[in-house]
Amino acid sequence: MRSIDILGIRTEAQSFQAAVATLLSWAEAGQRYVSTATAYTLVMGSQHPPISAALNEADMVTADGMPLVWLQRWSGVQGAERVYGPDLMLALCRESEQRGIRHYFYGGLPGVADTLSLVLQARYPKLVVAGVHSPAGDVLGEAPQQATVDMLNAAQADIIWIGLGSPKQDLWMHIYRNQLNAPLLIGVGAAFDFLSGVKPQAPRWMQRSGLEWLYRLIQEPQRLWKRYLIYNLWFVALLLGARLLPNRRKRRA
Length: 253
Prior knowledge:
Layout: E1 2-6, E2 9-13, H1 16-26, E3 32-37, H2 39-47, H3 49-56, E4 60-63, H4 66-74, H5 85-96, E5 102-107, H6 112-123, E6 128-133, H7 146-155, E7 159-163, H8 168-176, E8 184-187, H9 191-196, H10 204-208, H11 212-219, H12 221-252
Parallel strand pairs: 3-4, 3-8, 5-6, 5-7, 7-8
Antiparallel strand pairs: 1-2
Helix pairs in contact: 1-5, 2-3, 2-12, 3-8, 11-12
C-alpha cells in the first residue's frame, strides 16, 4: 500500500485483494475508519477544510472511482486497482463468514438497510448481522449524539458500514470514531442502494472504463447533474492547475 497525494488528499494505491486483507485484520482489533473516495469526494475535500481533515485523518482512503486509479498508476503504482464500495462490502462479507465478524449497517433511506441486510444474509448464510439502522433527519452535528453512540456500541459490531453518501459519511466517521467501540468503520455511499436493489448498478464494462458516472447520470439526472457535469470538470481543472503551477513558478523565477 502506497500513499498518493491527489488534490491534497492522501489516497492509498493498492490492489483490491490487499485492501480486503488489511481491512479484515483491522476488523479484529483497533479503532479505524475508511473512506471510499471518488473525484467528487476529493474536489469537496480540496475546497472545504473540515472535509479535508476528515479524509486525511482516515486510516485508509480508497480509490473508489477509476479516475483516481488512473492517477495512481500514472504516479508509478502500476498495480493500483479500484477499491469500490459495493465490491468491498461483498468481499468482506464473504471473507468474514467463517471468522464470526459482526456487521452493522447504518445509513440509507428508511428500509434500505433492512433490505440490504436480508440480501446479504441470503447470499452469505453465515454472515453475522449485529444490527441495522436508517437514520432520519440530519445526522451531523458538532458532537456525537449520545443515543446513536449507545445504540451502535450496544450492538457490539466489528464493522459498521456507513451509507450516508460522500462527504457526509466521511464527516460522520470523523466525528464519531473515538466514541464507538467497533474496530472498523467503512463509508461506502451508494453501496446500500446498489446491493439492496433499490437502484440499478452500472454494467461492469462501464465501471471498468470509467463510465459509471454516465450511467448514474442517466438514471438520476436531476439529482446528479451537478456532481458529474460540474464537479468532474472542476476535478480536471484542479488537477491541471496543481500540475502546471510549479512549472509557471519556475519560469517566473
